[in-house]
Structure formats: structure tokens, C-alpha cells
User: Which sequence fits this backbone?
């Protein structure tokens, strides 16, 4: 589909439609919150019945998500420690999964998964390239981050189980970055260049035409320079996977071999993105409790999303075929949400024949933090608002969907609904649960106060919240299971502390998740577009 | 995985589509009768008691839940609900359950059996004086000022009205007037040929007493204090209002000459002119606003009453209490009583107003759906009791759920219950002609026992008593 993905440069009916669609998520969210509040005042009995219907919906959805959270976590645990290099050799040989010496439950599960993957690959009729021909391009866009933030990720790539000689690393530095940032990048390049195919430091000039001050512009510029380098090496783009990381991203040791495996076994592999599970372990124990809990929640959300690959959209650090990236025109250079926008750009470019493939391996990043508690709160709020700014994709995608005739209607409807539902739920659920659900009782006049609903509704509410706490319990224990290990085992004290921190969830989700989401949607509604603000990374030096 | 996900999704969708209407129907009170294969709409019963944790019996069947309790799923009809709590008299009530509605008994008072009482003053009481609003009580064991006692709320006890070493200790008291909350008093007395007036200020630790006889001209029919500062006393004498400035020891005769009514609310005075106009005035008379003009209508309303005590309440509710017992209001119906009104008590939280005659007790509440304006709202009037013989005093108990009233020598508790049942329970025998004081904070009533003639405290409502000043330190 020939579609200019972005909101800049629109005119006439397109501009009008874009503005109308920009207002939809915010209008819907505010209408829901204020509408329920108004209904509570005007018709408390009717509002109480709506509250019951909403609470039941919320509970079932919570339990539904919990099921997939557990499934996804089990899969993550099962796949951990997989011998990817062995699997790659097996694929190169054209073998099935090698039989295990002592099959246990885990091995049986892994074998089941592998067998199915290989069956899908064989069914596609595509012969994968040799794993030895696969190269990786890793782009690290940098604004203010220094060596202490960058180096762990680069070192992990150099020491990982995938040959670094087939990895091209690019540190993409903004021209406006402080001098020390450039010095640090050059120092890292000097130290690690020899271990990789190459390690380039690319300085992104500011104020290039058509660009906004966004990470995507920096990454695109760097990727274009890298493309030249790859051409020099004679490496075909269809054998290259590009990973656009954040400056603080530290991939798992097996990330690139896992990525290579998934690339090889995925049918139509150059029309796919590959989404790992983001975890926020880099500075996990250095930040306040509320900061930890909210980002564990983000990991959980991505785990749940991974169980629905048909509707999975890329988020944060992820990978994709470099051929696809080039064909769709690289990342948007004028949008903040480049991570999800690139998925939509590719989806629309290929008329719906593009998808995200979940990978059960992790990339670790920093939890947004500041020097003190208030600075941390501010940093987290801004980060979540930036994530919620992904709603800027909604009007662009819907405009494209309205125009497209090749993407099946069912797919357009499913994606469109999921996009809108996801953002509206994100912005409204906490407010509905925390404030609106109690309003009918507050506004109860005599007529409502002498009805059975007035007395049964609180009981139903209490029962539902009680059942919902089961879901929270599951999250609490999975949160402990996902805890980063310090040197040695996680202490009992740390585990108990983390369990207790989950009790902060109702307050944290309201102020550090729902409120930023509503903020972002409201800004979009009024056309007050967000400017990119790099997330503050803060680590205590030992 | 995708197939499994789809299956689970549809399972949950089906669960929602099934459970949601079921839950809503349950909330509305519907239950499914498997015998008739039909839905019945039930009602609920809500019971809250003081004290709590009473056993609930419905038609003789005990429920697991103790009070406060909500019993849902009751088929429509009449039930007998009984509450039992050890050490308390059982409480029983007939209740009608309507479909989709909850019958609420949210102010059930379980009386201890026997009611705990204690002697407050050892000496026999000769007279009592109650404030206009019933919130203060002075008891006398003799005519001497030193033998008069007032209830001090902060200490939760009766204390001497005047300082024990006061020069006026032997002053022979004939009348006592008091401000709200009993912080200032005017005491009349002395000999027949040398009538004196004393002012007692209990706000100061020394309980200052001054002779204000020079300020008084004539014998006031009524003494009123302004609402907030109590710096001025307004004496109503034959339609004339004098202002006594106690601090300055100055009297302003004819401060409002020729008035037909007077009252105070916050920092404003409400004056009814002889012509029947109602004026709101600042206390210094610099700002005046006519609330309604004199007219034939107001004149006919006021009748022959020479003077009205005006009681103003929030949201522009006014009552006019005539000296001869006429009771009027600015809200329709304007004439609440033609004659015989002996008192008025307000419970502002629910805008309930209690008024009574010798024979009957009434409760008036503004209708919910009427607009709030100075005129135009309507009253809902309920006759709570009509079998009185000599009702003298009433008080709200436990918010506005009960009325404590004296009828002759009997002190009774009347239940202002839902579903129009007003049961009366005698709680004590009082000395005829004396007043009582009910303290809502502690749930105690102070009265003069008919047998012993002693001031007695009876605990009606079991409340957690806050420590009095000086206790527990």
C-alpha cells in the first residue's frame, strides 16, 4: 500500500480526517469517565447496574489475562537455556530436533514447540538460508547516555553466544549530544570494534528536513549509514536482522542466536518483526518500590501480548528484517513512538502481510529513575506518557485502513478495535475502578437508597474485588519469580519485600499508568503534540 | 496456541454473557424459583442497631449475620423481625418487604434491661430551668444561687452555676435565662421590693458574676442572645427590644422599638415588624434587607399573636413561635399550629423539625423534590404521637430516629420508625414540672427522679464516651 505514514504534511480532507481520528481515543476515554460520573449523579440506580456490568467484565478480563500470563511465563521458563546454537546447526543440516538424552517435562514441552515450529517452516516450502549467513545490525541511539549506560549492552553482545564477528554495531549519537557522550562512544568503539564486524559511531546532524527531534530520526540516519557498510561487505539485506535498542538495553546472552533461530523458522521471514520480552533489571534494586512494580507490570503485559501473535505489535527494543526496514523506508523520522510505528508502517506497506513474532528471550533495560523520589516520579510519569503517546498511531492507522482495499476487512476491524480498546482501557479502567464505581452510593437519593441494588451492589463489588485479588496474587508470585538475581539467590527478605510492594498497585497504576495515558490522549485530542524527552537513566555507582 | 486462545476467549465471552444478566438480576432482587421455573423479585431488609452485634430473627428464624446486617432475597410480604442482644430488651417490628426495595431500620436502639442509671446530685432538686433549645439545664436544690448547678458538657458533669466564693452566693433566684450551650446566664431574683438581675459569664475561668440591674427596665418576657459572640443580650419587653451590652455595661433601650418578632442566626438578626414585614439586619443595624413585605396575607397568618420568637435555620427555613403557641413557617403549609406550641427542635443533618403541644408531637421535613427558595417549598408533616396528656419537653435521640419526651411524670422514648410505626416505651418517672437534658454525645438523659427527687442520669444510648477534660491523663 502506498501510504505516507505520518501526520505531517497533510492537507485538506486528509488533515481533517486525521484531526477527527486524533480526537477519538481521548473523547471516548473522557466520555466514559465523565459519562459514568454524570450517570451516577443523574440515575444512580442505572449507574450502579453499569458498574456491576463493568466490574464483571474487568474481573473476567483480568482472569483471562492471568491465564495467558501464566502460560507465557511458563514458556519463558521452559525456553530459557535452550541450546539455540544446536538448533541452528540442526536447521542448517535440515534435521528435526535432536532427541534428548533424558527427556523430562521441560524437554518434552520444548520438543513439542520446536516440532511445531519446524513443521510450520517446512509447510511454507521456503528453505531458510544458512545460519552462518545471518548477520545482525544493532543500533544504539544515544542522546545523553554515557559509557556506564551503553557499555553493559555492548559487552553482552560481544560476549554472547552468537558470533560477534557477524554483528555490526552502530552507536547513533545526536549532534546535540554533550561532548562527553561522543567521547564515551568513541572510547567504546575503540575498545570493542575489533570484536565485531564493525562498531560505528554515527553522528546524526540536527534539523535535517522533514525530521523532528525523535529517536526514530537518529536511528534511521544510523541505519542508512550501516546499509552502506553492509553493501561494502557484500552482505545481502535479506540475511540481516536489525535490532533497534535503547541506550540502556542489555540483551540476554542468547538473544541473537534465539533471534536467528526464529528468523530462520518463520515463514515469510523478511515480513516479520521479532519481539522479545522486555524486563527492567539493570537498576532494579536501586529504584523505589513503586518504580519496580510498574515496570514488572509492563513485562507482564508484554508476556500476555506474546500469546496472541496475530495481533502482537512491536514495543520498545525489538528486531526486524533489515530488508523490510529498507523497503518500508526506515523508521518514522517525525514520530515519538517509532517502536510501534515501524510495525504499522510495515503492516500497511505489505497490505497486512506482516506480523510480529514473539520471542521468549529477554532484553533488560533501566527503570526510569532520577536522583531522588520526586525526580523518579517525574521521570516515570514522562516515560509512561511517552509510551501512551503510541496512541498517535491510531489516527494514522485508521486513515490507512479506511483507504485500504487489500487488507482484509476482518483484519482491519480486529486491529483497529484492539488498538482503540487497548488505549481507552489503559486510560480509563483505573479511574472507573477507583472513583466512579463508588459514585452511585455517594449520589444515592431516597429512591436509590431504599432499593435492593443499593445494598447488593457493594456486596457484589466486594466479591469481585476479592476474586480479582487472586489475579493480583498470581502477579505477585510471578513478579518474585521474575526478580533479577543478585549475586547468588534472591534473598527471602527481597522476595517478601517485593510481594508487599505489589499492594501499592491500585495507587501506582492510577497515577503512573492511567493518568499519563489520559494525559497523552487528551493532548492528542487537542492537538498539543508531545515533544521527545529522553528518559532519564540513573544508576547508583557502587 | 492461537486456537487455544480463541477457545478460551469464547469461553470467557460466554461466561460474561451468562453471568452479567444473572448478576444484574440478582442486584435488582430477582431470584429463580426452580419449582415454578420463574423469576421472583425479592426485597431486602437492612438492620443497624446500637449497640451492634444483635441476633436477627425473621419469622422466628435466626440468621447467621448479626447487626449491622443486610438480608437479601426476601420474598415480598409481611415479616416479623426480632432483634435480641443479651442484657437488652428484645426489639420486634413488623416489616413489609416490597419487590426490589430494601426496608431499612438503620437506627434501631436496643435499650439495656434494666437501663443503667446513677445519681448525679445527692441533694433533692427543687426546680429546673431549661434553655430554649433544650441543650442546657440548670437544676436548683434551693433558692440560693450557690445551690444552682449547670451541666458542663466539657466535664460531662453538673457544676455550680456561680463560683462558690461569689458574693452572690445567697442571692435568691426566681428565674434563670441562658444562652446556647449554657455559656452565659441572666439570673433574676432578689426580694420582692428589690428585684435584681445578675449576669453570669461562664466563659471565663473565674465564672464572673456582675449585677446588671441598671440595664434592665421592666420585666423582660424573653431574653435572647445573638448567635455567635454572645456579647449582647436582647431583652424583649412588650414588643420593645432593648440591647444590653454586658462588656460595656451599657443598655440601649428601644434598640428595636415596636417589633412583633425577633430571632438570630449566625451574625444576623431577623426582625418581624408590627406591620408583618420580615427584615434581615446586621447586628449593628447598618445593613437591612426586607425578606418579605407586610401584606394582608402575612397579617392574617400572624393572627393575634403579640410576639414571635423567630428561629432561623440553614437553607432559608424560618419558624415563628408565638407567645400564645402559634407556630408558623415560611414554607407551606405556613400555619403548622394555630395554638399550643410548646417547643421546637431541629435535627439539621436530615432537616427534621420536631414540634409539640400538650397532646401531640409532630415532625416536619421539607419535601425532597421541591425547589429550595424562601417561599414555595412544602412540608411533609408526620404526627408521631397524639395520646399525650401533659407533654412539656421533647428532644431528638440517636439522630432523628427517636424522640424523648416528658408527659406528666412519665419520661418516654418514642420510635420515629419507618413504615409509620411509632412505638412508645416509658423509660423513667420524672418529677412533674421539671425539665430534662438529653446529651446526644454521651447518650445520657439527666432528669429529676420522681421518687427520690434527685438529679439522675440514665444511659439510653450506649456510646463510647470520650474522656472528659482531665480524665485519662
Assistant:
Amino acid at each position: 500500500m502506498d501510504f505516507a505514514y505520518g501526520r505531517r504534511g497533510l492537507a485538506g480532507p486528509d488533515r481533517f480526517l486525521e484531526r477527527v481520528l486524533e480526537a477519538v481515543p481521548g473523547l471516548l476515554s473522557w466520555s466514559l469517565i465523565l459519562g459514568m460520573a454524570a450517570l451516577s449523579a443523574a440515575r444512580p440506580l442505572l449507574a450502579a447496574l453499569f458498574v456491576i456490568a463493568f466490574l464483571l467484565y474487568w474481573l473476567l478480563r483480568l482472569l483471562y489475562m492471568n491465564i495467558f500470563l501464566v502460560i507465557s511465563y511458563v514458556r519463558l521458563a521452559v525456553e530459557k537455556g535452550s541450546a539455540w546454537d544446536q538448533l541452528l546447526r540442526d536447521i542448517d543440516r535440515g534435521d528435526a530436533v535432536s532427541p534428548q538424552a533424558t527427556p523430562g517435562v521441560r524437554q518434552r514441552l520444548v520438543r513439542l514447540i520446536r516440532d511445531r515450529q519446524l513443521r510450520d517452516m517446512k509447510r511454507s516450502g521456503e528453505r531458510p538460508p544458512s545460519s552462518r549467513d545471518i548477520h545482525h545490525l544493532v543500533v544504539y541511539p544515544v542522546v545523553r547516555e554515557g559509557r556506564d549506560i551503553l557499555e553493559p549492552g555492548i559487552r553482552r553482545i560481544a560476549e554472547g553466544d552468537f558470533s560477534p564477528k557477524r554483528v555490526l554495531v552502530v552507536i547513533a549519537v545526536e549532534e546535540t549530544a554533550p561532548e562527553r557522550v561522543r567521547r564515551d562512544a568513541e572510547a567504546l568503539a575503540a575498545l570493542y570494534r575489533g570484536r565485531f564486524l564493525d562498531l560505528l559511531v554515527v553522528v546524526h546532524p540536527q534539523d535535517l528536513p522533514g525530521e523532528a527531534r525523535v529517536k526514530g530520526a537518529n536511528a534511521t540516519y544510523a541505519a542508512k549509514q550501516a546499509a552502506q557498510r553492509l553493501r561494502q561487505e557484500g552482505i545481502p539485506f535479506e540475511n540481516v536482522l536489525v535490532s533497534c535498542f535503547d541506550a540502556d538495553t542489555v540483551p540476554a546472552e542468547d538473544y541473537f542466536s534465539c533471534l536467528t533461530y526464529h528468523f530462520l523458522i518463520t515463514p515469510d521471514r523478511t515480513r516479520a518483526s521479532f519481539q522479545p520480552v522486555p524486563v527492567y533489571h539493570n537498576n532494579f534494586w536501586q529504584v523505589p518500590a513503586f518504580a519496580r512494580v510498574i515496570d514488572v507490570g509492563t513485562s507482564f503485559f508484554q508476556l500476555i501480548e506474546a500469546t496472541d501473535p496475530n495481533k502482537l505489535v512491536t514495543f520498545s527494543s525489538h528486531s526486524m528484517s533489515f530488508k523490510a526496514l529498507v523497503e518500508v523506508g526506515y523508521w518514522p523520522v517525525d514520530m515519538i513512538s517509532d517502536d510501534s510505528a515501524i510495525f504499522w508502517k510495515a503492516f500497511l506497506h505489505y497490505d497486512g502481510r506482516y506480523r510480529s513474532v514473539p520471542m521468549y528471550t529477554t532484553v533488560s533495560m533501566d527503570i526510569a529513575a532520577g536522583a531522588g523520589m520526586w525526580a523518579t516520579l517525574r521521570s516515570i510519569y514522562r516515560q509512561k506518557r511517552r509510551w501512551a503517546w503510541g496512541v498517535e498511531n491510531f489516527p494514522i492507522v485508521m486513515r490507512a485502513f479506511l483507504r485500504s482495499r487489500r487488507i482484509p476487512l476482518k483484519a482491519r476491524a480486529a486491529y483497529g478495535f484492539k488498538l482503540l480498546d487497548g488505549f481507552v482501557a489503559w486510560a480509563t479502567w483505573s479511574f472507573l475502578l477507583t472513583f466512579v464505581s463508588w459514585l452511585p452510593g455517594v449520589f444515592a437519593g431516597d429512591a436509590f437508597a431504599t432499593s435492593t441494588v443499593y445494598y447488593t451492589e457493594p456486596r457484589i463489588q466486594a466479591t469481585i474485588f476479592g476474586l480479582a485479588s487472586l489475579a493480583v496474587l498470581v502477579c505477585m508470585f510471578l513478579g518474585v519469580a521474575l526478580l533479577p538475581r543478585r549475586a547468588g539467590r534472591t534473598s527471602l527478605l527481597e522476595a517478601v519485600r517485593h510481594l508487599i510492594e505489589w499492594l501499592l498497585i491500585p495507587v501506582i497504576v492510577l497515577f503512573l499508568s492511567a493518568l499519563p495515558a489520559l494525559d497523552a490522549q487528551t493532548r492528542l485530542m487537542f492537538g498539543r503534540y508531545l515533544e521527545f524527552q529522553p528518559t532519564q537513566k540513573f544508576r547508583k555507582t557502587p | 496456541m492461537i486456537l487455544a486462545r480463541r477457545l478460551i476467549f469464547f469461553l470467557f465471552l460466554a461466561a460474561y454473557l451468562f453471568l452479567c444478566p444473572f448478576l444484574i438480576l440478582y442486584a435488582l432482587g430477582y431470584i429463580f424459583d426452580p419449582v415454578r421455573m420463574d423469576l421472583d423479585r425479592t426485597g431486602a431488609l437492612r438492620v443497624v442497631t446500637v449497640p451492634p452485634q444483635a441476633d436477627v430473627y425473621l419469622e422466628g428464624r435466626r440468621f447467621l449475620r448479626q447487626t449491622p446486617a443486610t438480608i437479601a432475597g426476601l420474598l415480598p410480604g409481611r415479616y416479623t423481625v426480632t432483634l435480641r442482644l443479651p442484657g437488652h430488651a428484645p426489639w420486634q417490628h413488623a416489616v413489609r418487604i416490597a419487590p426490589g426495595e430494601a426496608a431499612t431500620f438503620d437506627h434501631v436502639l436496643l435499650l439495656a434491661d434494666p437501663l443503667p442509671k446513677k445519681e448525679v446530685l445527692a441533694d433533692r432538686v427543687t426546680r429546673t430551668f431549661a434553655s430554649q433549645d433544650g441543650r442546657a439545664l440548670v437544676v436548683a436544690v434551693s433558692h440560693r444561687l450557690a445551690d444552682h448547678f449547670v451541666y458542663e458538657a466539657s466535664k460531662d458533669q453538673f457544676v455550680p452555676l456561680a463560683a462558690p466564693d461569689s458574693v452572690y452566693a445567697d442571692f435568691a433566684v426566681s428565674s434563670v435565662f441562658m444562652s446556647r450551650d449554657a455559656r452565659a446566664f441572666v439570673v433574676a431574683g432578689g426580694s420582692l421590693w428589690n428585684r435584681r438581675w445578675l449576669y453570669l459569664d461562664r466563659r471565663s475561668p473565674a465564672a464572673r458574676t456582675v449585677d446588671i440591674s441598671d440595664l434592665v427596665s421592666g420585666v423582660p418576657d424573653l431574653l435572647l442572645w445573638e448567635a455567635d459572640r454572645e456579647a449582647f443580650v436582647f431583652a424583649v419587653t412588650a414588643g420593645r427590644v432593648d440591647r444590653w451590652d454586658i462588656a460595656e455595661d451599657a443598655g440601649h433601650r428601644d434598640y428595636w422599638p415596636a417589633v412583633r418578632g425577633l430571632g438570630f442566626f449566625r451574625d444576623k438578626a431577623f426582625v418581624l415588624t408590627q406591620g408583618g414585614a420580615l427584615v434581615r439586619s446586621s447586628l449593628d443595624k447598618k445593613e437591612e434587607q426586607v425578606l418579605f413585605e407586610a401584606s394582608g396575607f402575612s397579617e392574617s397568618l400572624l393572627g393575634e399573636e403579640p410576639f414571635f420568637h423567630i428561629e432561623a435555620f440553614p437553607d432559608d427555613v424560618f419558624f415563628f413561635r408565638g407567645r400564645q403557641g402559634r407556630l408558623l413557617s415560611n414554607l407551606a403549609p405556613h400555619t403548622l399550629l394555630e395554638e399550643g406550641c410548646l417547643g421546637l427542635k431541629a435535627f439539621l443533618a436530615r432537616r427534621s423539625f420536631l414540634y409539640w403541644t400538650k397532646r401531640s408531637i409532630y415532625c416536619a421535613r421539607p419535601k425532597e423534590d421541591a425547589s429550595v427558595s424562601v417561599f414555595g417549598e412544602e412540608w411533609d408533616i408526620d404526627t408521631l404521637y397524639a395520646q399525650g396528656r401533659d407533654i412539656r419537653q421533647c428532644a431528638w435521640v440517636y439522630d432523628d430516629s427517636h424522640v424523648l419526651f416528658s408527659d406528666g411524670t412519665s419520661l418516654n422514648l418514642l420510635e420515629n420508625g419507618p413504615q409509620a410505626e411509632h412505638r412508645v416505651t416509658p423509660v423513667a418517672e420524672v418529677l412533674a414540672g421539671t425539665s430534662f437534658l438529653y446529651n446526644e454525645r454521651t447518650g445520657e438523659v439527666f432528669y429529676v427522679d420522681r421518687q427520690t427527687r434527685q438529679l439522675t442520669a440514665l444511659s439510653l444510648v450506649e456510646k463510647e464516651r470520650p474522656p472528659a477534660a482531665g480524665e485519662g491523663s
Q: What stands out?
A: The interface with chain B takes residues 48-49, 52-53, 56-57, 60-61, 63-64, 67-68, 71, 307-310, 445-446, 449-457, 459-460 of chain A (CB under 8 Å).
